[in-house]
């Protein structure tokens, strides 16, 4: 698509008629001739990647052209890095870092601890020991990982999804064994292992505010009182077309007012919740998704001071490999990302770019 195509109109996208949904999105790509995600923004636009997909030349070319930071969907998690006690396997994560370095990209590590028992390796669930043993176990993992990647990974999610939406701690194995202080201890050990890396508390649902946001802010205050650095907040933002941007903006501003770095860390916009039985993606929904993304990206830029904008990372590259589509043939269950299953840029991509261009 040529650059001089008229910008998308600002409009309400909350209600889309069945008639409008009948028109299938046109074939082709909505790239702008002279702009990419890497060239338009002052902050890095990232993508969560999977090591095995780096061998796909189209996948790799898309990353090289448009993304300035890589995260990983799973290759930096505990089960991948330490699948057996004391046995660290860095090959896949190292391959991602190597790809990033070769292409002048930053790396964001995701994640040192994930506060959900189902996502821990079997040996962790079966581990026997007292509180001191568990703390040594956590410290060893964090220290080993941070030192291995020192100077090559610029930021880390230290704890992922540790807070419930109602403002309570997730009853994870780490919470049960070490109590609520496990979060602060994890940040302490991460900082000791690599004092130069930026450390983030990553979670979902902050856009809804309430008790969850309050507890996160309380944890930040506790950390500051103890001299433990929590540099930023990972604002996942797996969201849907019906989400009101003002809610996102209000809560971005709350964290910004705390002088925290803010990373929209797992961004995607589901359209399935809008009209789940309409396939393939219609032009009306494709444009609505692009408009919503433009509003959200613009809101991030307007409500987070520049020096606190750590960037925006999409949770995947194309609809083909989105976690929304795992287990569904042909990647036609949902269309949450910027590129379609053939790696063509969608209206979603164009909306993202237009926010950066101020259109």
UniProtKB/TrEMBL annotation:
Q: Which of UniProt's keywords are assigned here?
A: Carbohydrate metabolism, Glycosidase, Hydrolase, Polysaccharide degradation, Signal, Xylan degradation
Q: Which family does it belong to?
A: Belongs to the glycosyl hydrolase 10 (cellulase F) family.
Q: Which residues cross the membrane?
A: none
One of the entry's Gene Ontology molecular-function terms is:
endo-1,4-beta-xylanase activity
Stored Gene3D superfamilies: Glycosidases
| Pfam family name, one | Glyco_hydro_10
Q: Which InterPro entries match?
A: GH, GH10, GH10_dom
Ranges where the GH10 domain occurs: 31-355
Q: Which SUPFAM superfamilies match?
A: (Trans)glycosidases (SSF51445)
Instruction: Give GO BP annotations, semicolon-separated.
Output: xylan catabolic process
The EC number(s) this enzyme carries? 3.2.1.8
Can you name this protein?
Beta-xylanase
Catalyses which reaction(s): Endohydrolysis of (1->4)-beta-D-xylosidic linkages in xylans
């Amino acid at each position: 698509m040529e650059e001089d195509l008229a910008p998308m109109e600002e409009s309400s996208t909350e209600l889309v008629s069945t008639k409008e949904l009948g028109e299938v999105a046109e074939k082709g790509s909505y790239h702008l001739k002279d702009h990419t995600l890497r060239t338009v923004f002052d902050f890095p636009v990232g993508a969560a990647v999977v090591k095995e997909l780096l061998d796909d030349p189209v996948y790799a070319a898309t990353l090289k052209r448009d993304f300035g930071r890589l995260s990983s969907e799973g290759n930096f998690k505990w089960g991948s890095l330490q699948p057996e006690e004391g046995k660290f396997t860095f090959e896949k994560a190292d391959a991602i870092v190597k790809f990033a370095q070769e292409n002048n990209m930053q790396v964001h590590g995701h994640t040192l601890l994930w506060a959900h028992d189902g996502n821990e390796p079997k040996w962790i669930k079966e581990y026997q020991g007292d509180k001191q043993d568990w703390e040594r176990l956590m410290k060893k993992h964090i220290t080993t990982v941070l030192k291995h990647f020192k100077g090559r990974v610029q930021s880390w999610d230290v704890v992922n999804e540790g807070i419930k939406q109602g403002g309570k701690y997730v009853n994870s194995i780490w919470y049960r064994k070490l109590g609520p202080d496990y979060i602060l201890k994890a940040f302490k050990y991460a900082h000791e292992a690599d004092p130069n890396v930026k450390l983030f508390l990553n979670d979902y649902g902050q856009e809804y505010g309430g008790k969850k946001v309050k507890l996160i802010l309380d944890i930040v205050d506790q950390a500051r009182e103890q001299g433990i650095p929590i540099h930023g907040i990972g604002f996942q933002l797996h969201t849907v077309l019906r989400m009101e941007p003002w809610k996102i903006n209000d809560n971005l501003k709350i964290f910004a007012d705390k002088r925290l770095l803010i990373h929209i860390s797992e961004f995607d916009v589901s359209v399935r919740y809008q009209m789940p039985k309409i396939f393939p993606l219609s032009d009306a929904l494709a444009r609505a998704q692009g408009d919503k993304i433009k509003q959200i990206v613009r809101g991030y830029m307007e409500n987070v001071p520049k020096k606190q904008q750590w960037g925006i990372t999409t949770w995947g590259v194309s609809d083909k490999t989105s976690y929304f589509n795992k287990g569904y043939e042909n990647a036609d269950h949902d269309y949450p990302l910027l590129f379609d299953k053939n790696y063509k840029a969608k209206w979603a991509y164009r909306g993202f770019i237009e926010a950066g261009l101020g259109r």
